[in-house]
Specification:
Blueprint (H helix, E strand, L loop, with lengths): L3 H19 L9 H15 L6 E2 L2 E2 L4 H14 L8 H4 L1 H26 L3 H12 L4 H9 L4 H26 L8 H25 L6 H24 L1 H32 L4 H12 L3 H10 L8 H22 L11
Antiparallel strand pairs: 1-2
């Protein structure tokens, strides 16, 4: 009908009403976060001018502080004792971390090579593969009746390794697409991960009983921060998304689904239980899109290199929710593959 701007308002209203509708059903409220993200993405695609700059202030400057808030929240939910789980379930942690650092980067490189995208956008596909898992995988592991303790441990270890592993993987795999300064990228990730997580751990150790409210507040703040980050990235890369969005979405979906599939069977080959295999599948398939966005922003390439992470985050929440719901209805088999 030629009324493009009005259709944007209608779509935003649709996702808002859908979110309210999902909240009334216990079996569906896990999709609320995803529908909220779709509302933000719709707003950014139709009205990007509101999410790029306010006065002289560029909203992309918010991305790194928001990631630091998410990482601080992760730190407040942890203690040094949690890392004792590494020794209790070292096999699962090693398999999970090696699967995550091996499977997703290689799939990302293959997809980037066949995509025929501009070099910076192709590098963004590799970047999302080289990023660690995030808190979303822990939520889905809980819903899927997987091993939540193992999930949290793998996420924590992979995240703490990211400042050192991610730049090296990017140099090795994405060096043909863009120039990678390993030391600069390491320092950027240290500022986004190590310092805020360290601050969260310290806060968790020193806080009193009166600060327990933060355990309830931080997950909500993290979800809000992720939503804002995705909206800003979508607005910044709107023109490129309109050109290649369909193909990029397909490649990102392949990346995500193959992560689940290969992560699951990688764990089963090593004789891990069904419950642990579910955990590793989710840890491999669900990456930290916020961190990938922050890295792209620190390199000044948020509108190109950050596009893959902007698409990956909402898609992985949809597929992760579907997979977790499927597994939730099917109790894990206690026996390992060889029995």
């Amino acid at each position: 009908m030629g009324n493009i701007l009005l259709s944007g308002l209608i779509l935003m209203a649709f996702f808002a009403v859908l979110t309210l509708g999902l909240s009334g059903y216990k079996s569906l409220n896990g999709y609320m976060f995803t529908t909220m993200i779709f509302a933000g993405v719709t707003a950014a695609l139709y009205y990007p001018e509101y999410f790029i700059q306010i006065g002289n202030f560029k909203l992309t400057a918010l991305i790194i502080p928001l990631i630091q808030i998410i990482m601080f929240g992760m730190g407040t939910s942890m203690s040094l004792n949690d890392f004792g789980a590494i020794f209790k379930s070292s096999k699962g942690v090693i398999i999970g971390v090696t699967a995550q650092l091996g499977i997703m980067p290689i799939i990302g490189l293959i997809l980037a090579k066949i995509s025929d995208f501009p070099s910076e956008i192709a590098a963004g596909i590799v970047l999302i593969g080289c990023s660690p898992s995030g808190v979303a995988s822990n939520v889905m592991a809980y819903l899927a009746k997987a091993n939540l303790a193992l999930s949290i441990t793998i996420t924590s270890i992979a995240t703490l390794l990211a400042p050192f592993i991610t730049p090296l993987l990017m140099k090795l795999l994405a060096g043909e697409f863009i120039e990678i300064d390993v030391l600069t990228m390491m320092w950027s990730i240290v500022k986004m991960i190590i310092l805020p997580i360290g601050g969260g751990l310290l806060f968790n150790r020193l806080r009193g009983e009166g600060a327990k409210w933060i355990d309830r507040a931080m997950p909500l703040m993290s979800m809000l921060a992720i939503g804002i980050i995705i909206t800003i990235i979508t607005a910044a890369g709107r023109d490129s998304l309109l050109d290649i969005g369909g193909i990029l979405m397909l490649l990102v979906l392949i990346h995500n689904v193959f992560g689940y599939f290969l992560g699951y069977w990688y764990a089963r080959i090593f004789n891990m239980s069904e419950q642990d295999a579910r955990t590793i599948a989710l840890e491999v398939g669900m990456q930290n899109g916020g961190l990938a966005s922050g890295i792209a922003n620190s390199l000044g390439k948020i509108a190109s290199m950050g596009l893959a992470s902007a698409v990956f985050s909402p898609l992985m929440n949809i597929t992760g929710s579907i997979l977790a719901s499927y597994w939730h209805k099917r109790p894990p088999i206690s026996k390992s593959l060889s029995r």
